[in-house]
Amino acid sequence: MQLCGHSVSPYFERVVIALDIKGVMDQVELAGVPGGFKSEKHFSYHPLGKIPFLIKDDGTSITEGQVIAEYLDRVLDGPDLMPHDFEQATQARLIARVMDLYFSEAVKPFGRIAFGGESTDAEVEKAKLEDIPMAFNYLEKYMGNGQRAVGDDWTIADTALIPHLYWYGALQVRFDLEGYDRWPRLFAYWNHVKDTDIVTRSFDRIKESYDEFFGGKDG
Ligand SMILES: N[C@@H](CCC(=O)N[C@@H](CS)C(=O)NCC(=O)O)C(=O)O
Q: Is 33 in the pocket of ligand 1 (CB under 6 A)?
C-alpha cells in the first residue's frame, strides 16, 4: 500500500503517527503524490485533489485522513488505536472530529497568512478571541484525564490531535496566541505527551516536510 501526501498536512501526518504507534512504518510506502500535486493521476485517486490518500494493493484509493487511519488500524498489525470499549471509541472519534471540523476551521485565518495568503484584521481577531477558544472549549469537554487523550494508551484521538497541536504551537509563537492554561485537561494532556518519542518524531517529520516546501522560513 502507498500512503500519499506530505507531513506538512496534519491530515496526512496523523496517519503516519498511527503507523509509528503501531510499529508498522515498514508496511506502507510513503509515496508523495504520484504524478505530482493536482495532476490528472492525483485527481484519479482523490476527486478533490487533496492529500492524504491511500492507494491499496488492488489499485483503489481511500481518502480522508481519519478514515485512512481507522482503515490501517484495522488491517495492520500492532496495538489497536480504536479503543475496544465503545464509549471510549466514541470519545476518541469525537475528539478527532472536533479538531477536524472546528479547530482546523478556527485557525484558517492564521494558516492562510502563514502559508503566504491573506486574512483581514477582523478575521484574525475573530479567530483569536472567539473561534479558537470556542474550539478548545469544545475539545476540553471530551478530553480524558489520563496519560493520553482517551485513557492511558495511544488512540486514534492522539493521532488527530498531535499534528494540529504542532501547527497551533507554531502559530502561537508567530501570532501571540494564548497557551493551553485555560483548558486544564488539554494543558495536562500536552504536558504528558509533548516529550514522548511519538510526538518528537512527528514534529521532526512536519518540520522537515515544511522546510522541503517552504525553505525553512517559519513553522
Ligand atoms: N478532510 C480532509 C482534508 C484534507 C485537506 O484539506 N488537505 C489539504 C492539505 S492540509 C489539501 O490537500 N489541500 C489542497 C487543496 O485543498 O487543494 C481530510 O481529513 O483528509
A: no
Q: How confident is the model at residue 213 (pLDDT cuts 50, 70, 90)?
A: confident
Model confidence pLDDT, tens digit, residues 155-207: 999 999 999 999 999 999 999 999 999 999 999 999 999 999 999 999 999 99
Which atom of ligand 1 is found nearest the CA of 38?
17
Who's near 17: CB < 8 A, 6+ residues apart? Answer: 158, 159, 162, 163, 198, 202
What's the whole-model pTM score? 0.96
Cβ–Cβ < 8 Å for 10, 163: yes
- For residues 62 and 52, give the distance between their C-alpha atoms in angstroms, rounded to a whole number: 9
Q: Supply the range of the domain harboring residue 187.
A: 86-214
Bridge partners (DSSP) of residue 63 are: 53
Where is the domain boundary, 75, 94, 114? Answer: 75
Q: What is the CATH number of the domain that holds 119?
A: 1.20.1050.10
**Which residues, other chains included, contact 57 with Cβ-Cβ below 8 Å and sequence gap of 6+?**
1
Place of cell 472546528: 102
Q: Are residues 49 and 108 in the same domain?
A: no
Q: 50's torsion region: left (phi>0), alpha (psi -120 to 50) or beta? A: beta
Report how far ligand 1's centroid is from the alpha carbon of 79 (Å): 27
